[in-house]
Amino acid sequence: MSTGKILVGLDIGSSKIRTIVGTVEDKKNTINIIGVGLSPSNGIRKGMITDFDEAISNITAALDDAERMSGEPIHRVYVGVSGTHIETYDSRGVIAINGQNAEITEDDVDRVLEAAQAVSLPSNREILRVIPKSFSVDSQKNIKYPVGMTGIRLEVEAHIITGQVSAIKNIDKCLYQTGVDPQEIVPSILACAESTLDRRQKELGVVLIEIGASCTNMAVFEEGSVIYSAVIPVGGEHVTNDLAIGLRCSIETAEKVKIEYGTCLPKEISDREEIDLSQISKTDNHAVSKLQAAKIIEARYHEILLLVKDELLKIGRQGMLPAGGVLCGSAVKMPGCIDLSREALQLPVQLGFPRDIEGIVDRVDDPSFANLVGLLQFANRYGRTPSLLDFNFNQTFDSAMRWIKGILPN
After folding, report:
1. Residue 275: half-sphere exposure toward Cβ, Cα within 13 Å
2. What 3-state DSSP class applies to 362?
3. 150: which residues sit within 8 A by CB, 6+ positions away?
4. Quick one: which H or E segment has residue 24?
5. Pairing mode, if any, of strands 153-164 and 140-143?
6. Are 212 and 239 in contact (CB under 8 A)?
7. Which residues contact 2 (CB under 8 A, 6 or more apart)?
8. Region label for 109, one of left (φ > 0), alpha (ψ between -120 and 50) or beta (otherwise)
9. 8 A C-beta contact, residue 318 and residue 3
């Protein structure tokens, strides 16, 4: 049995379901990884459950793998979610300070966050996260933590991340069927930020880009907090689909071509090079041009990056982030992806690897595990003890207060 606090993360992706188990000692920020579980994701599409039986079976398999490796029973998990059902909103809340000596308390922060939530959300949206971007006290702006200050007017600019109610409830039902209790639902991009970004990057200004199977998540950080996030409905699966059409082969064969021969650098490939599909497939036996495959891959990756650039243009940050861009997710390991990203985004770009971990590091030292490791780090830094899936105002405020305190210097 392991010593220290046991934390478990569960990433419900569209291509794979993965579980990670880690321990953390008191007053220690390094996560000790002791178990990893992996299974296919056959019952999930674009972050939403499409087949309950398949999803339950796959989640159970991933949990069982992690239990066997770690030697720890799994009862509670922090769940990472992404997908096209995630939507974000910006909001502002204002209140008057009525306390003794007009001193701002945590109750005042709760009230101003409640005011920020008074936005007109569709009935099918569920608030997953309220992220305070900055506070203002009277005429003083850009305050990170106003508790203890004196004033008569408190204002907050907040970033709200929401999910589709049915998608969240379906995940809840699946986890209930597998016998685990979800502690908290964490948007994937926030988990990635915990494991890949340091305080300096967040302060200077950085864009974090997670290219997953069905979608691309992005978040922009400045002055220590999220100022913008978005979900782009294009990911690695679209590259596979393009290859299947362009090379006239099956989806399974196209996926193997992408993994074994894929590159974003067609300039480095001779037009005479070919791929014999019979060597990697039982259904396709013709030869295809390796150069053509590279051009197809480059075109789709370039499209994804241009869509990210468009999002940066919306907030006036295109080419204006000193810490550049950080890429994570399973699809960013494509050869040439970094060079293409630098060219498309006009920013310095690097791969994001999980930081501050020990244990079976060789199993998770990879950009595709940024989300999973980040779930444990998120749980260690902001996590709470009570179970959570049907969110209410008090829980949302508690979550926001922990976020505020988490970005303050130690």
Report:
1. 25
2. helix
3. 101, 102, 103, 104, 137
4. strand 16-24
5. unpaired
6. no
7. 23, 32, 34, 70, 71, 72
8. alpha
9. no
H-state helical runs in 262-324: 290-314
Residue in the structure block whose two tokens are 């399974």: 252
Q: How many residues are listed for the chain in this entry?
A: 410
Query: Options 3.40.50.150, 3.30.930.10, 3.40.50.2300, 3.30.1490.110; which CATH number does 87-162 get?
Result: 3.30.1490.110
Instruction: Please state, in angstroms and as integers, the Cα–Cα distance from residue 358 to each residue in 22, 36, 363, following that order.
Output: 9, 13, 11
Domains of the chain by residue range: 5-84+165-196+354-406, 87-162, 199-234+300-351, 237-293
Distance, CA of 21 to CA of 33 (rounded, Å) = 6
Q: Which residue has the tokens 């075109």?
A: 299
User: Two tokens at 87?
Assistant: 């939507």
Distance CA 218, CA 89 (A): 14
Q: Are 337 and 352 in contact (CB under 8 A)?
A: no
Count other C-beta atoms under 10 Å from residue 107's C-beta. 11
pLDDT in tens, the chain (410 residues): 455 789 999 999 888 999 999 998 766 678 999 999 999 988 888 788 889 899 999 999 999 999 999 999 999 999 999 988 999 999 999 999 986 688 999 999 999 999 998 888 888 999 999 999 999 999 899 898 899 999 999 999 999 999 999 999 999 999 999 999 999 999 999 999 999 999 999 999 999 999 999 999 999 999 999 999 999 999 999 999 999 999 999 999 999 999 999 999 999 999 999 999 999 999 999 999 999 999 999 999 999 999 999 999 999 999 999 999 999 999 999 999 999 999 999 999 999 999 999 999 999 999 999 999 999 999 988 875 333 333 344 445 555 655 565 555 54
Q: Would 5-84+165-196+354-406 and 87-162 be classified into the same CATH topology? A: no
Residues 299 and 265 sit within 8 Å (Cβ to Cβ): no
Give dist(CA 141, CA 132) in Å, integer: 13
